[in-house]
Amino acid sequence: MTSNILAIDQGTTSSRAIVFDGDMKIAATGQQEFTQHYPASGWVEHDPEEIWATVVATCKAAIKKAGLTAQDIAAIGITNQRETVVIWDKVTGKAIHNAIVWQDRRTAPLCQKLKKAGKEPTFTRKTGLLLDPYFSGTKIAWILDNVKGARKRAEAGELLAGTIDTFLIWRLTGGKVHATDATNASRTLLFNIAENKWDDELLKLLRVPAGLLAQVKDCAADFGKTEKSLFGSEIPILGVAGDQQAATIGQACFEPGMMKSTYGTGCFAILNTGADMVRSKNRLLTTIAYRLGGKTTYALEGSIFIAGAAVQWLRDGAKMISHAAKSGELAAQADPSQNVYLVPAFVGLGAPHWDADARGAIFGLTRNSGPAEFAKAALESVAFQTRDLLDAMKKDWRGHGGRKTVLRVDGGMVASDWTMQCLADILDAPVDRPTVLETTALGAAWLAGSKAGVWPKARDFSKRWALDRRFEPLMDEKIRRAKIKGWHDAVRRTLSA
Ligand SMILES: Nc1ncnc2c1ncn2[C@@H]1O[C@H](COP(=O)(O)OP(=O)(O)O)[C@@H](O)[C@H]1O
Ligand SMILES: O=P(O)(O)OC[C@H](O)CO
């Protein structure tokens, strides 16, 4: 039997498909960027048809590049940008509105209204989340309230809703399966993470008809088969997880206390807390790390909205660099005597501030500040934000009796040695970069491969994790303290209230 696995990694800026061989090594990759739509300030949308087209094209390209056919693929694992939602017509499969992306802030007024009505504690107790526009529930409500006839059609059972995994499963199976996994469900503000079910009270508060929602399965489960016409023969879909949770799995963070931080568009730190649902006292999220064999493993999560996106802004907005990879080189040339801070609150600030109305700011400019200082400030902002998250996480985890943690990193940005050294310096802790950087896709592939019985179980999979490089902190403590203080001043001046 074949043991090749196809991982679909549908991210915020690109769709990727990766074929892993039986040794869990990358055999071939397909990748396509797609359009980001910004229809108004703080709004971010994707065209679901473009997402679908790029997913199909990259899957075909990866299978072909690997010199294989669909028959040589044992299973598919799907991982996806989380929280982003689509609502589509059950019969035609066509979306009734563009996907509203996780970064989109348009539902800030609705969140505010629910907060004022005193509903946040109910949402937090049941979902582990906060009332922030980041999560899917208020985005679903917005589409139902703003697309003509949508609410009526939803109530009549003509529409379906889902996060991107659910939309892809629906399309891949030719409209036969409407399902999601527990990690994606846990990001909607509608899913009770203690009881593992959609929560009627929350559905009522957000006025979301239950019939819109998908069946919630384990991360390694039967999600149906792809239509024969798509890739030439049917392929079973056996693994699904939100991308940050998939990276947690791909980094083999299976033990309580293990932590990973992924640096893509945003940055997301996830700490495995085992069977314990640790409640944060520091505005972090309690979420589902994975659910396997009906058993839920929980996590604490710190979510930063802008990490690599700050580098994209340097490239596409400020036009100061030609390629993302140039940012580290440029930062290294910055004048060390300047203290320029960039607070990249382009779409508000996530954990631990959760300020939807804040917008980006730059402090400390002099007549000599130029591209090098901007690049340094952009990359340092990622380290400072991570420091804030980890400080909050340590408090919660220690307060819970947890031991010291080690940080494993991944995502597009960790290719930058300069950024990783800066991260270790600001965190004052070692940072471990693995040899396999495609941990998100690997995590999804492992879910599918282990479910198919062709890849090793968790313990043996963990043994394969290999270190590429450990970055040790080298910065003088006095300098670190001064820099962090400067950062906190800058953040304080950026917050909206
Ligand atoms: N060498 C680099 N130095 C700094 N940033 C980088 C580098 N390479 C990629 N990036 C940033 O990483 C991000 C892409 O990472 P990726 O994990 O593919 O993101 P996503 O899954 O969110 O689309 C981009 O925002 C890009 O600006
Ligand atoms: O697409 P990424 O890798 O930036 O991840 C997005 C997150 O899942 C949003 O919560």
Question: What do you see in this structure?
Answer:
This protein has helices at 48-65, 108-116, 120-127, 136-146, 150-155, 164-172, 182-185, 200-205, 228-231, 243-250, 308-317, 326-332, 371-399, 417-427, 439-451, 458-463, 477-494; strands spanning 4-10, 14-20, 26-33, 45-46, 73-80, 85-89, 99-100, 159-163, 179-181, 191-192, 197-198, 215-217, 237-242, 259-263, 267-274, 285-292, 295-304, 341-343, 361-363, 407-410, 431-434, 467-471. The protein has 497 residues and is an alpha/beta fold. The chain folds into 2 domains: 4-243, Nucleotidyltransferase, domain 5; 252-434 and 466-497, Nucleotidyltransferase, domain 5, CATH 3.30.420.40. The strands form 7 sheets. It has a 7-stranded mixed sheet with strand order 16-17-15-14-20-21-22. Strands 3-2-1-5-13 form a 5-stranded mixed sheet, with helices on both faces. Strands 4-7 form a two-stranded antiparallel ribbon. The mean pLDDT is 94. The structure holds adenosine-5'-diphosphate and SN-glycerol-3-phosphate. Residues 11-12, 81-83, 102, 242-244, 264-266 line the site of SN-glycerol-3-phosphate.
Ions, cofactors and other bound molecules:
adenosine-5'-diphosphate, SN-glycerol-3-phosphate
Average residue-wise pLDDT: 94
Radius of gyration over all CA atoms, rounded: 22 Å
Strand content: 15-25%
By CATH, the superfamily of the largest domain comes out as ATPase, nucleotide binding domain
* First-residue to last-residue Cα separation: 60 Å
What's the main sheet like?
Answer: 7 strands, mixed
Q: Please tell me the total number of domains.
A: 2
CATH class of the largest domain: Alpha Beta
Could you say what the CATH topology of the largest domain is called? Nucleotidyltransferase, domain 5
Question: Number of helical segments?
Answer: 17
Structural class: alpha/beta
Enzyme class: transferase
Pathway: Polyol metabolism; glycerol degradation via glycerol kinase pathway; sn-glycerol 3-phosphate from glycerol: step 1/1
Pfam family, one: FGGY_N
Domain Carbohydrate kinase FGGY C-terminal: 260-449
